[in-house]
Amino acid sequence: MLDEGKSREELVDELKELKAILKSNQESTKKIIENERILSKTALELVDLPPHVDIYDFIAKKLGDLIENSLIAVSMYDEPSDSILVRSVIGENQRLIELSQKIMGGGLTDIKLPLRSFYEFYDDKEHQKNTILSGKLLKMEDGLYQVFAGRLPQKITRMVELTMNMGDMYGTGFESKGKLYGTVYIFLKKGNKLNNNELVQSLISLFAVAIQRKQAENEIKKALKEKELLLKEIHHRVKNNLMIISSLLNLQSAHIKDEGARNVFRESQNRAKSMAMIHERLYRSTDLKNIDFGEYIRSLTTDLYRTLVADPDRIRLDIDVEDVKIDINTVVPLGLIVNELVTNCMKHAFPDGETGYIKLELYQKSQKIVLKVIDNGIGFPEDLDYKKTSSLGLQLVNNLTKQIDGEFELDRNQGTSFALIFEEKE
């Protein structure tokens, strides 16, 4: 039934108004959803931004795609010089770019403006500072003259605006947590309006956080690179010092008559050399978290073989090692273990000119890494407990195995097989 107090015409008008409101609400909802989609997509793109892509170019292009018939200028804030440096200019108005080269003797990306000039342009300097740091998009009422903070004569900026048919201009700073990271200026053609201000403002806030994150990442990378270079230099110096110690032990052993004492010096010399080789490899490595231990074993055992085996035809050396990657904290004790086990085989497995072979294996099995040193020599004495021995070499092996949380196994059948099983720590 019709409301007795209202005519049919009034009710029809109310119905039309309700439909218009509903349509407006639907359009607003649709606009909000689309804005959220653009913001989400842009946020994901910023997170996955490749290292070679300049973030200022990315920002300028994103805003340029969103705002038709515009020219976008994005700048960074350079803290050491307290200046605004134009980093990227994108837009259809190429004539403005060409004209700027004639007026200023360079491109727009060559512009460098001291930040203080923006404060000095206004009588209320503190207000202007807060305006830049507010991150709110503001209309530049004085046009290019305001954009360049009065550093170009107003007659010239006005002439450029008329020649280029330039209309409204907007600008703001990229601000995050009270700190300025750069600025953005939007130049529209005359007659065009800046639509969807809310989305543009939200994107600018998003870009400010992204620039802050990017700068923080760059600072961390720089600090890591400096620490890595310092660490490499330390490894280089340690290697040199160990080689000096090895040389001194070699010189000293030449003056020792007692064969037993001379052997002790030689063993110490080999230990110093094996550690020096590790530090040399660490110095040359590009990734201290993933060192190719297989290549180190090849170098170390070949060097020990040349030093300790006088007749290569008597003892054959077989090296079957995979290119297993080892962390820096594991590689040093593991290198010493290899040195002790290989030295022990070469010195004691083949007495009185006996012949045979020594084999080294290194491979990965599931989550474990297995190192084996095998020989077909006289075998390990049955009455010798390798875990409780006075031998300095075996004591070192046991202690270093505990250090890397490994397990040490000995097989005395058909010679001797030492097996070290450990799990590389994350």
Automatic annotation (TrEMBL):
Xref: Pfam families: HATPase_c, HisKA_2
Taxonomic superkingdom: Archaea
Q: Does the record carry Coiled coil as a key word? A: yes
Which residues does UniProt call coiled coil?
Answer: 206-233
> Which keywords fit this entry according to its UniProt record?
Coiled coil
Where would I find the Histidine kinase domain in this sequence? Answer: 233-426
| PANTHER family, alphabetized | SENSOR HISTIDINE KINASE, SENSOR HISTIDINE KINASE PDTAS
What is the protein named?
A: Histidine kinase domain-containing protein
Its lineage opens with: Archaea, Methanobacteriati, Methanobacteriota, Methanomada group, Methanobacteria
